Amino acid sequence: MPSALVTATIQAAVLNATSNVLAQAISAYRKDAPLSLNLLPILHFVIFTLLNCPPNFLWQEYLEQRFPGNTASTAISEKSQGAAVKKKLNVGNTVKKLILDQTVGAAVNTVLFTAVIGALKGLSGEDIADVIKQDFGPVMRAGLKLWPLVSLLNFTVVPVEKRILVGSMVGVGWGVYLSLMAAG
User: Fold this and answer.
1) How far, CA to CA in Å, does 37 sit from each of 22, 27, 31, 148, 177?
2) How many helices (H) and strands (E) in the chain?
3) SS3 for 80?
4) What is the pLDDT of residue 38?
5) What is the separation, in whole angstroms, between the first and last Cα of the chain?
6) How far is 63 from 85, CA to CA, in rounded Å?
7) Cα 16 to Cα 8: distance, rounded to the nearest angstrom
8) Which of 28, 44, 65, 130 has the fewest Cβ atoms surrounding its Cβ within 10 A?
9) Is the pTM of this model over 0.85?
């Protein structure tokens, strides 16, 4: 049985390929043209995901280990005369994870996406730097309209090993946006 990291990476790669196919279909529809799949951008998205997903999986694990979302509390039950362990949301840690994920995590992922896709397209280092300067602000602002809510839900109700899957499922729509942006 594959590890949780391998499973999450495969799931993310399939979902990101799907988002690029959808973006190409939307572009064809907008141009009133027949759909003709370009496999190169799909391959670019899959390569990026295969490179990017494992560090993001480890990032989520690190955040959870460093800032546990739930604190165990022991309550004594009068009925059973035993102790029951209850999990209580640690709001402070959840806020810390949310802030780190939406600042450091988002910035790193935005730069890496732009750099890797640019490199796969054959852009020079200087051109990649220019694209990062041009796209960083708009992508970060657009991301702030979606990802904080996804992260909040992930940090409060989704087990850490499933967060990449949830993020990738929401990321299908986000991937369509990025695909359309990357296509120019």
Assistant:
1) 10, 11, 14, 32, 17
2) 7, 2
3) coil
4) 95
5) 40
6) 23
7) 12
8) 65
9) no
Question: Does residue 164 contact residue 53 with C-beta atoms inside 8 Å?
Answer: yes
Q: Return the SS3 of 68.
A: coil
Q: What are phi and psi of 85, to 5 degrees?
A: -95, 125
CA-based nearest residue to 172, from 21, 5, 8: 21
DSSP state of 121: T
- Residues in the chain predicted with pLDDT less than 70, given as ranges, are 73-84, 182-184
Cβ-contact 38, 24 below 8 angstroms: yes
Q: Which two tokens stand for residue 119?
A: 């490199």
Helix (H), strand (E) at residue 22 = helix 4-30
pLDDT at residue 168 in the model: 84
CA–CA distance, 114 with 133 (Å, rounded to integer): 10
Q: Which tokens hold the place of 116?
A: 């890797």
**3-state DSSP call for residue 176?**
helix
Q: How many CB atoms lie within 10 A of CB 118?
A: 21
Count CA within 13 A, CB hemisphere, residue 15.
Answer: 19
pLDDT at 160: 86
**CA distance readout (Å), 48 to 16, 52, 68:** 9, 6, 29
Report angle CA 35, 173, 120 to the nearest 5 degrees.
70
| Residue 46 contacts residue 16 (beta carbons within 8 Å) | yes
